[in-house]
Amino acid sequence: MRRLLAKRMKFHLLGAFFVSLGCAALYKFGVAEPRKRAYAEFYKNYDAMKDFETMRAAGVFESAPPK
């Protein structure tokens, strides 16, 4: 029974460290990287002026009335 808390704590700290490392890696490669690729693909062909003119024609902006 001697040093049981220290022994169990060491085991649980190492386990928690590796579980958190695994979760971080899963998030990075499962969420963050696909999201970065999706944004890069979207902005590759994005025309801000065309989008602005579409919104302007729809009457979204008060300071830029539709033509």
Automatic annotation (TrEMBL):
GO cellular component, one term: mitochondrial inner membrane
Cellular compartment(s): Mitochondrion inner membrane
Recorded topology in the membrane: Single-pass membrane protein
Entry superkingdom: Eukaryota
Keyword tags: Membrane, Mitochondrion, Mitochondrion inner membrane, Transmembrane, Transmembrane helix
Pathway recorded for this protein: Energy metabolism; oxidative phosphorylation
InterPro entries given in the database record: Cytochrome_c_oxidase_VIc (IPR051389), Cytochrome_c_oxidase_VIc/VIIs (IPR034884), Cytochrome_c_oxidase_VIc_sf (IPR037169)
UniProt keyword Transmembrane, yes or no: yes
GO biological process: mitochondrial electron transport, cytochrome c to oxygen
TM regions (residue ranges): none
Stored Gene3D superfamilies: Mitochondrial cytochrome c oxidase subunit VIc/VIIs
Primary location group: mitochondrion
Function text: Component of the cytochrome c oxidase, the last enzyme in the mitochondrial electron transport chain which drives oxidative phosphorylation. The respiratory chain contains 3 multisubunit complexes succinate dehydrogenase (complex II, CII), ubiquinol-cytochrome c oxidoreductase (cytochrome b-c1 complex, complex III, CIII) and cytochrome c oxidase (complex IV, CIV), that cooperate to transfer electrons derived from NADH and succinate to molecular oxygen, creating an electrochemical gradient over the inner membrane that drives transmembrane transport and the ATP synthase.
Family under the similarity heading: Belongs to the cytochrome c oxidase subunit 6c family.
UniProt subunit comment: Component of the cytochrome c oxidase (complex IV, CIV), a multisubunit enzyme composed of 14 subunits. The complex is composed of a catalytic core of 3 subunits MT-CO1, MT-CO2 and MT-CO3, encoded in the mitochondrial DNA, and 11 supernumerary subunits COX4I, COX5A, COX5B, COX6A, COX6B, COX6C, COX7A, COX7B, COX7C, COX8 and NDUFA4, which are encoded in the nuclear genome.
Protein name: Cytochrome c oxidase subunit 6C
